Amino acid sequence: MLHIISLELAASLSVAYTLLYVAVLYLHPSSRPTRLISKDHPTVIKTRIAAVSFASAVCAACTVYIGMGAHDSLVSAAKRILGLTMKPQEVVWSLALTATLFAGPLFEYFVADRGWMDFPRDIVHGLFAWTGVRNYIAGPATEEFVFRACIIPLHFYASVKPGYIVFITPLYFGLAHVHHIYERTRQNPGQLAQACLVSFVQFTYTSIFGWYASFIFMRTGSLLACIAVHSFCNIMGLPRVTGRVRGALWKSVAYYVLLVAGLLLFTVQIDDWTRSATGYEPYALRR
């Protein structure tokens, strides 16, 4: 396996990327939530999007510099190292695979709740509000860019085995969400224990999602596939695993049957639907 940097340097840079991504959220006064202004305020959101975009560019420049070959152009090196190639087929299959996990919730929204009637309105209200831009566009794009496209190559360069990369690198992604403890206690003083519990749960599921996103990135070599999957998961939220679906009993039965069937389909097809002829190969990253 190609060895360019030490594991210590790869880990140190990954921690630095994580700290930078979080730190820029608080550097500007307009980006800091207060007891009077929440993190959902348009000014806070816009300032933070600009800040993390800058942080993403810095991280990308560092990673590309490390992996850029002597005869590389900047554009070709960035495309190869950061997974910036256009692979529409990989994006579609990755989304289809992810959708199997949400077969039940999709049925509940479109059929049980007849959400297909409100779908265009929900898209407009969800994606074009500033909270939607943050949650479904800017957030997934910058997080996947830094925690997949910038951090994963560093561990390839340090000769870390692909299996370890899938399970280790998402921990940086999980740690990046611990800062929400500060935000929650700033807006709700005296609720430290609750803030810690919520952040622990968030750390857990973001790390688990990170395993999946890292797997997608390494199998397909497509950053866009990771962003699309991340955005889709943010839109869907966590599937319900208890309770009844509104309406007739058959809707609840159908929901849970589809939930289980979707999980089975996911486990059966995860290899085939993420197979790519031009996946992310560590041996393509040459100095």
UniProtKB/TrEMBL annotation:
E.C. numbers: 3.4.26.1
Alphabetized GO MF terms: metalloendopeptidase activity
EC category: hydrolase
Cited InterPro entries: Rce1, Rce1/LyrA-like_dom
Entry keyword set: Endoplasmic reticulum, Hydrolase, Membrane, Protease, Transmembrane, Transmembrane helix
Parts of the chain that traverse the membrane: 6-28, 49-71, 91-111, 192-214, 220-241, 253-270
Ranges in coiled-coil conformation: none
One Gene Ontology term, aspect cellular component: endoplasmic reticulum membrane
A Pfam family hit: Rce1-like
Family to which the UniProt record says this protein belongs: Belongs to the peptidase U48 family.
Name of the protein this chain belongs to: intramembrane prenyl-peptidase Rce1
Lineage of origin: Eukaryota, Fungi, Dikarya, Ascomycota, Taphrinomycotina
